[in-house]
Write a structure and sequence with these properties.
single chain, 471 residues, alpha/beta, seven-stranded mixed beta sheet, 18 strands, binds pyridoxal-5'-phosphate
Length: 471
């Protein structure tokens, strides 16, 4: 008992801790309140743990050693300062990983974005006449030039775009959609529900696997129909005995009855990936050329930019949308606008877009390069990290983000097996660091896909593995 009291008395005082060299150091970067909180919490924990001891041993005196206590406090204080929303290393090989932030912005636009963000800007100011301008003007011209369309409007995301379109063109009216295209995107975006929110009545036509032009035509009512909607079945495909109406034929039908044809394209590919052997995806330009009156798509899927919803098409419809009060509610932020403008500008030169936009360079990375990188990282792991075996294995990466569900991109995976702990244990540790390393787990192995790993992250991965296997 006396020993326990002695131990409690030996716990350093707050003042002593504050005077410790390491604490003084950390106070230059971490705020004092945060450090004080951590100190108090840590001393309380030490006290509680001593009180709960049954028998004391010599080793317990280490618990009250000031250097040991301070070391823990420093680690914890640094963690307190970490952003909750922060960088991770994506070793899953899923390029547009919805949970990990979808598309990565191109490195080369960072100055442009920061310049606008940290200064006053022309956001809604027309420098030509000194009058109020529109935030949409900065980007409309670029989009219309790139996509050869009459007009454009940008909102927060594509879900907002669809809602705005339906609420503008078809409120109180009917919208005709094929039964094969009643998509759920995830995160509770379902076409029938968005339709209801937009105040439009859904008219389903055809069957799940087959919808014909006459199904649409039979459902048209000259007074009641507000729009014909075609939805890209982004995240699934209907295969086998199937039939759908090509957009061009649907557009002709809309023309004949003077009803707008809307195409929710979802992913919005700005380049034709066919030349890289990826054939599954219609581009935005192809959709525009098929004659749709309005096309909408995401900014952070296959375009590879920031989260945004882009609406393009006939000027008269876009003008109506600009007047809809929802446009104000869905108003795009200046940071996004800057990032989107800078990303879109890269597309004026296809070569540049392929080189600079991470999504595209990851998607089109040649297998030889993937093999070379995988081999390099794998050998480095085997050479430098103990208690682990790493081998190479053939595998596939995914585009993700609900795009190209059937497209398998051949890749080379690094297969890891820890020798002294379980795969689940290691996976949890990798995920728990300051920079979480997110991996795939499959059949009692950990897999890493170099396609989504930046070169600069290779050394970091080695360090993370070393720290976590060192037990
Ligand atoms: C992804 C997607 C949406 C939603 O787009 P967000 O930008 O995520 O809001 C809507 N429609 C389709 C067809 C999609 O693929």
């Amino acid at each position: 008992m006396t020993q326990k009291r002695e131990l409690l008395r030996a716990i350093p005082k707050v003042d002593e801790i504050i005077d410790h060299k390491s604490i003084k150091e950390i106070l230059s970067s971490v705020s004092r309140n945060v450090v004080m909180d951590v100190i108090r919490r840590s001393l309380e924990q030490t006290r509680t743990s001593i009180l709960s001891l049954e028998d004391l041993s010599e080793k317990d005196f280490e618990k009250v050693d000031i250097d040991v206590i301070v070391e823990k406090i420093v680690l914890e204080a640094k963690r307190e300062e970490l952003m909750n929303l922060r960088r991770v290393i994506n070793a899953t090989g899923v390029i547009l990983h919805t949970n990990l932030g979808r598309a990565l912005l191109p490195e080369c636009i960072k100055d442009q974005v920061w310049e606008t963000a940290s200064n006053y800007s022309t956001l809604e100011y027309n420098v030509k006449n000194g009058l109020r301008g529109s935030r949409y003007d900065h980007i409309d011209g670029i989009i219309t030039k790139l996509l050869k369309c009459e007009a454009a409007l940008v909102v927060n995301n594509n879900a907002a775009a669809v809602l705005l379109i339906l609420s503008t063109l078809a409120k109180g009216k009917q919208v005709i959609v094929s039964r094969g295209e009643l998509v759920e995107i995830g995160g509770s975006f379902r076409v029938p529900e968005i339709m209801a929110q937009g105040g439009a009545e859904l008219v389903e036509v055809g069957t799940t696997n087959k919808t014909k032009l006459r199904d649409y035509e039979n459902a048209i009512s000259e007074e009641k129909t507000g729009a014909l909607l075609k939805v890209h079945t982004s995240n699934y495909r209907i295969l086998g005995f199937t039939e759908e109406v090509p957009l061009s034929e649907l557009s002709e039908l809309g023309n004949k009855y003077n009803i707008p044809v809307v195409h929710d394209l979802g992913s919005g590919a700005m380049i034709d990936f066919a030349k890289f052997g990826i054939h599954d995806e219609e581009t935005v330009l192809q959709s525009v050329n098929s004659g749709a009156d309005i096309v909408c798509f995401s900014g952070d899927k296959l375009l590879g930019g920031p989260q945004a919803g882009i609406i393009i098409g006939k000027k008269k419809y876009i003008e109506m949308m600009k007047k809809n009060p929802l446009t104000r509610a869905f108003r795009i932020d200046k940071l996004t606008l800057a990032a989107l403008e800078a990303t879109l500008r890269l597309y004026f030169d296809d070569e540049k877009a392929i080189r600079e936009i991470p999504l595209i360079s990851m998607m089109t990375m040649p297998i030889e390069l993937l093999e070379e990188r995988a081999d390099f990282l794998c050998s480095k792991i085997n050479r430098e990290v103990k208690e682990i075996t790493a081998t190479l294995e053939e595998g596939f990466s995914q585009v993700g983000g609900g795009s190209m569900p059937l497209q398998e991109l051949p890749t080379k995976l690094i297969r890891i097996k820890p020798l002294k702990m379980s795969v689940q244990q290691l996976e949890g540790k990798l995920r728990g660091g300051d920079v979480p390393l997110i991996v795939r787990v499959h059949k009692d192995h950990i897999y890493m896909d170099v396609r989504t790993i930046k070169l600069a992250e290779f050394d970091e991965i080695i360090e993370i593995l070393k720290i976590n296997l060192d037990i």
